[in-house]
Amino acid sequence: MLGCLSPFWFGLKGMIEGPAMLFGVEPGASAADLVSHYRYLSGLFFGLGLVLASCVPRIEARARRLRWAAAAIVLGGLARLGGLAIGDAPSLAHHIALAAELGLTPMLVLWQARVARRWTQAQVTLR
To answer: Mind giving me the DSSP string for 58-115?
Structure first.
């Protein structure tokens, strides 16, 4: 349980402070720490993509896995929205990403639930 504190702490700190959480790095700065953090977060995104891809073979039975992954994506979108609310002005690409995180992702969860419900109904019909 103690091991969970580090991701919670640094995740919350990054959501609140942005790049300034990386000691001495101001927004817009080009520093090795900022690049390193960007690469780390990109690795997390890649891993999240693998989790989502692992749901595809039996999407009707992967609700829990898909919903946990979707929750992580929505939390990221909420953090991005929080930044927007305090004056961050990201590019159009980031606005599109925000729409996907807070719009498309919940729609994916709803679609999966519909597929699972139809699959269950079909199984009952076959019996």
So the answer is: GGGG-HHHHHHHHHHHHHHHHHHHHHHHTT----HHHHHHHHIIIIIHHHHHHHHHHH
User: For 4-61, what is each residue's pLDDT tens digit?
Assistant: 788 888 888 888 888 778 776 665 556 777 788 888 999 999 999 999 999 999 999 9
C-alpha to C-alpha distance for 14 and 8, rounded to whole angstroms: 10
Token pair of 15, please? 């959501």
- Per the CB < 8 A criterion, the answer to whether 64 and 89 are in contact is no
- The reported pTM is 0.83
